[in-house]
Design goal:
Blueprint (H helix, E strand, L loop, with lengths): L4 E4 L11 H4 L4 E4 L5 H12 L3 E4 L5 H5 L3 H7 L4 E4 L16 H7 L21 H24 L3 E4 L2 H7 L24 E5 L5 E5 L4 H11 L2 H6 L25 H15 L4 H10 L4 E3 L3 H6 L1 H5 L3 E6 L3 E6 L3 E3 L11 E2 L26 E4 L5 H11 L3 E6 L7 H6 L1 H4 L4 E4 L5 H12 L3 E4 L5 H5 L3 H7 L4 E6 L16 H8 L1 H6 L19 E5 L24 E2 L11
Parallel strand pairs: 1-2, 2-12, 3-4, 4-5, 11-18, 13-14, 13-16, 14-15, 16-17
Antiparallel strand pairs: 6-7, 7-8, 9-10, 15-19, 17-18
Length: 569
């Protein structure tokens, strides 16, 4: 909803590229030569009237132009100034011109994190550093504006692409000395991989590390009974962690069992076309997708129906098919992406001087409480971000998890620092009663259940909204869109979405088997969100609190793992 003016350099060849139809949609554009006094004067006038400035020059460049953060915030004390260089100002590589390829090389994306076990560095134009820097930057800007409502003062933020790229790699960058065997992985698993079907097309499924999905997959494709008769067992995971033939504990099977299971899976899937297996496996509740190219994804009728993809009429390129809005806000007007337009003026520089009050000596989100019911990586990482900005986050987990130790206890070392922990049975009336009391004193709920699951658990939006009308309710899903679509109820994690949207085919290369891109929140990463916002009030509403540690019915454990926020902001 912000009015955004994109300042372009005259003669920049990128101005006429198709990508600008996506990157600049909804913006107004103006060309200014910042090396002339006229251009600098026009830029300063825009900054004087702005709430936010975003730039991605190397550290020091804007200072030399006279448009640096110190000078601009002196002129406009309420300004939020975001800098997104390749390397941070404190980095010894700060002077290096760093676009996405350089960032990928510097942060091991093309070597240590290459997919498919390749020995050759693999480059892909998928911009992890740029994408995550955009996300971190947008979050920081919004929270700086949030705090400005109380203090009147702006802020200066730096988010380096290198730091942001590192945040995309999740558990792949953790190292522990001598971790317990239950957290170890025995290597590639047939329960997360690509298989060629009878019609020559490829599918990808992911059931690894999830006891229910592992069993359901084997039953759905018809190999369960044979595996059990040949020596595998089907026993509860957490009371049988030392077994290496326990089918539900797919992370700890021997290499021999993995090879045997993979062989049987491949033999079975060759008997049917890919579309049949996608339907069968998804109907069993297991994430599965047909491998598509990016063009196939854009052209799929299912993505059109759900508005995951849309068509924007562009003055220069005509009808441009591109991704749609990725977030729904229930209490805000729908965002309809439009083509870029030319800036014709209209921002007044006659601003009312801001009244600068006392600064905060506490984190921005101090006093807010978040209930995190999500699992794996995407949902917990979103709640962790709120914790990094000062919110009190309570991670609520089931007492009988489907996920094994690697996902349930190892991944949280990366996505749950600073959170408090609570085990709760939401299927029990007493558990829901405790949860309801937490809801009454909370500000945010985060979960990544498929549509309908939260309602069946008794924690759906309509019921929760009645308990606490001011609460913001965040639901992260895999394939749901702004409009109802045929894929909306499908389960999914990041690797499956990579398969569906062309990323795995891009990494594998033409004529080769698809390859999972490990640097992209490996394991999970649902790709869009539905936010149900409180219809009234704002951050200045009373922040209701009570000390839950004094409540005998609720046992909260303070998180022991804390890490410094390393996003250079």
């Amino acid at each position: 909803g912000a009015d955004v003016v994109k300042v372009d350099r005259p003669g920049n060849p990128e101005l006429d590229s198709l990508g600008r139809s996506v990157f600049d949609r909804g913006k107004e554009r103006i060309e200014l030569d910042l090396k002339t006094e006229e251009g600098l004067a026009a830029a300063r006038d825009l900054v004087d009237a702005a709430d936010v400035v975003i730039e991605n020059f190397r550290p020091g460049v804007m200072d030399r132009l006279g448009l640096g953060s110190e000078e601009m915030t002196r002129r406009n004390p309420g300004l939020v100034y975001l800098s997104e260089p390749g390397f941070a100002a404190t980095d010894e590589k700060a002077s290096v011109r760093a676009f996405e390829g350089v960032i990928g090389a510097a942060t091991a994306q093309f070597t240590d994190l290459r997919p498919g076990g390749s020995e050759v560095p693999i480059y892909t134009p998928i911009g992890l550093g740029s994408t995550y820097a955009a996300i971190h930057g947008a979050i920081a800007v919004v929270l700086a504006l949030y705090r400005r409502e109380d203090t009147g003062a702006g802020d200066v933020i730096e988010v380096s692409l290198a730091g942001a790229a590192m945040s995309a790699m999740a558990v792949l960058l953790m190292k522990a000395n001598d971790p317990p065997p239950r957290y170890a992985s025995r290597g590639p698993s047939p329960f997360m991989g690509s298989f060629q079907c009878g019609d020559g097309k490829w599918i990808f499924w992911i059931a690894a590390g999830h006891s229910r999905n592992t069993i359901q997959l084997c039953k759905a494709i018809g190999i369960y009974a044979g595996l059990i008769s040949d020596g595998m067992v089907d026993l509860p995971v957490y009371s049988n962690l030392r077994l290496d033939n326990n089918l539900p504990d797919s992370s700890h099977l021997t290499r021999e069992w993995n090879e045997e299971i993979s062989k049987r899976m491949q033999e079975v899937v060759m008997a049917r076309p890919a579309a049949d297996w996608v339907r069968i496996v998804n109907d069993a509740g297991v994430p599965c997708a047909l491998h598509r190219t990016a063009q196939d994804w854009l052209d799929a009728k299912e993505t059109d129906e759900s508005a995951l993809t849309i068509v924007v009429e562009d003055d220069a390129f005509g009808s441009v098919r591109q991704f749609g809005a990725q977030v729904d806000l229930s209490e805000s007007p729908e965002f309809v992406p439009g083509p870029p337009s030319r800036y014709e003026g209209g921002w007044t520089t006659d601003r009312t001087p801001v009244s600068i009050g006392e600064g905060f000596d506490k984190p921005i989100l101090d006093g807010l409480r978040v209930l995190d019911l999500s699992n794996v990586l995407a949902g917990p990482a979103s709640a962790r971000t709120l914790a990094e900005y000062g919110a009190e986050v309570i991670k609520i987990d089931t007492m009988d998890p489907y996920f094994g130790p690697r996902v349930f206890s190892w991944f949280p070392m990366e996505v749950s620092p600073g959170k408090r922990s609570l085990l709760l049975n939401l299927k029990d009336s007493r558990g829901r009663e405790i949860f309801d009391r937490l809801v009454e004193t909370s500000d945010v709920i985060v979960h990544n259940f498929r549509p309908g699951v939260a309602d069946r658990l008794g924690i759906g939006y309509e019921r929760i909204h009645k308990l606490n009308p001011r609460l913001t309710y965040l639901n992260i899903t895999a394939m749901d869109g702004p409009k109802p679509g045929p894929w909306g109820n499908r389960p999914g994690f990041d690797p499956m979405v990579q398969a569906a949207t062309g990323i795995q085919l891009r990494y594998g290369g033409e004529g080769k088997p698809p390859a999972h891109a490990a640097a992209g929140r490996e394991g999970c990463g649902e790709d869009r969100c539905l936010v149900r916002d409180a219809p009234a009030g704002g951050h200045d509403s009373p922040r209701r609190r009570r000390d839950l540690r004094s409540d005998p019915e609720i046992d909260l454990v303070a998180g022991r793992h804390r890490r410094r926020t390393e996003h250079d902001s």
